[in-house]
Amino acid sequence: MEADLIHARALFYRLWHYMVIFVQRESIFEELKALVGHLKNHPFDSKTAQAWKEFDGFLAQGLEVFRAEQDALLFAPGEQFVPLSASYYLEGQDNGKKRLEAIDILKQSGLQLASYTITSPVAEDDLAFLTLMMNAFLKEMLGDPKFFALHEKLFKDFFHLFGDAFIEAIATHQKSVCYKSCAIILGAFIQHERLFFNLA
Fold it and tell me: Residue ranges of the domains in the chain?
């Protein structure tokens, strides 16, 4: 598999990660802006090209504007709840069987995952952790082929099963602006991932 393709896919999971963590620090926000600034030059099609343009324009308004929307969608209780765990999407509650499955995949990898972007404990099947794990698996694949099977299992048993529901949730939220653009991009990306794994 081409190293450039692995790297590009890792960047998309990194983008997804930034969108589901609580972005408090300016330095992390600047990382998100830089990543969007890079990825917008490689759209999948005209629809995602427009979404990247709107996404980038929204971020230009600054951290406080972004954080206000992020709070409204993901972290503040409201009428439209956007779950962040695989267990909730697939079992209707947090801390279900999917968390145990995620823990098992992590144990098989032998990796100890931690990140400065996650500032409070999260479950292993939380999107913040799953995106971090997938990003790490893709990077490890560059040097160790055993990680292909692990990253394939992680996609098929997690992102493939509930990714659409999460994307739909952020796309249809009444306060979604930036996240609506992100939903278009992630929707196209997950379809490309399904093609990659012959799941289309």
Answer: 3-197
C-alpha 38: how far from chain center: 17
181 close to 57: Cβ distance less than 8 angstroms: no
Q: What are the structure tokens assigned to 191, written together?
A: 């379809």
Q: HSE on the CB side for 79, CA within 13 Å?
A: 4
Main-chain phi, psi angles of 126, to 5 degrees? -75, 145
Long-range contact pairs involving 145-148 (C-beta distance under 8 Å, separation at least 24): 147/109, 148/1
Closest CA to 65 of 168, 143, 175, 169: 175
Q: In 3D, which of 135, 127, 129 has the Cα closest to residue 88?
A: 127
Enumerate residue ranges in the chain where pLDDT < 50: none
Q: What is the pLDDT, as a whole number, of residue 79?
A: 74
Q: Going by C-beta distance under 8 Å and a sequence separation of 6 or more, which residues neighbour residue 165?
A: 89
Segment 156-197, tens digit of pLDDT: 999 999 999 999 999 999 999 999 999 999 999 999 999 999
- Rounded to two decimals, the pTM is 0.95
Q: Tell me if the domain spanning 3-197 has CATH number 2.60.120.620.
A: no
